[in-house]
Amino acid sequence: MRKKGLIETMMNGAVARTSHSQVVSELGKAIVAGEFAVGATLPGDAELEARFGVSRTVLREAMKTLAAKGLVVPRARIGTKVTPKTQWNLFDSDILTWHFAVGVDEGFLLHLSDIRLGFEPQAAALAARHASEAEINQMMLLAVAMGDPDHTAETLALADLRFHLAVMDASRNPFMRTVGSLIEAALAGVFKLSSPEADRGKIGDVAANHMRIVEEIRRRDEDGARRAMENVICVGRGRIAGAGGM
Asked: Which fold has domain 6-87?
């Protein structure tokens, strides 16, 4: 079963979980929310087994998963401790989802837009160099679809995500696609906080700005594609700042 992304989860609710994934999710959210502070030792196995109603085997596998994400580290004769936030893998889609589940502020979303500015303009430039005509045509269709006046905030965010992931794919750089979870989190946050869907007149502007990216890619203008992508991200960043009164 394909795992839902953050935007799909916002639209359709949480996915059905195994015991393992539920323990991982609940403990992960508790850590991100600060219920278990950085440097704190998690409760012992017996307490957590009772809390979640799972076996020791399930609990230990869940701890291994959280450790792999950088949230905890086991200490012999001490217990499992919560690691400093600098060690958390913020590229991990689960950790990003947990941040949204417990609540994110404008600062968190602005950090996401900053990292997008570090990757996506270059991806657009690479797409201008490498994209096939079929890929360019598909990107244009995705950009045009963003102008549908019947979009909700969630469906517009999903359409936006499809477009940006298509650009990352067309860059031909395999590392670019690994930041897809960051892009999805950024778009989910922007549209949840201040979606153009609330002002129908702005939906056409969103589509036009994305069509401009494709036009620059079609012209094989790497600098133009880079600037067009920067503009789209900065417009979204402006909505974050405006919604936050910054």
From this structure: Arc Repressor Mutant, subunit A (1.10.10)
